[in-house]
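Practice problem: predict the structure.
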Amino acid sequence: QVQLVESGGGLVQAGGSLRLSCAHSGRSFSSYTMGWFRQAPGKEREFVATINWSGDSTLYADSVKGRFTLSRDNAKNTVYLQMNSLKPEDTAVYYCAASRSGYLYSHPANFNSWGQGTQVTVSS
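Answer:
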């Protein structure tokens, strides 16, 4: 059973930075494609970024491209989402997700395991 635990959320002013972490407690972490999604109040869950098993391939939503960087440390079973130049519209609950697929999907239906989420609030 894969368990994902997010951390690093909080309140930050516009233009600031946060780094989210997601710890994967299952076995064979390096075989999973990992992703981040977010959900703002009253909106559907939306794709943020995803990274392949080795960390050498990533995919980003257009809304975060150039501002967010996704990376992973397979030795620590952890993925990191570095968020810079944050905007009020980035405010949401951020969810970490894991997929057994080797492809970089952006739809949440392709991810099998989810964390509980961490709140990110960006004030203007």
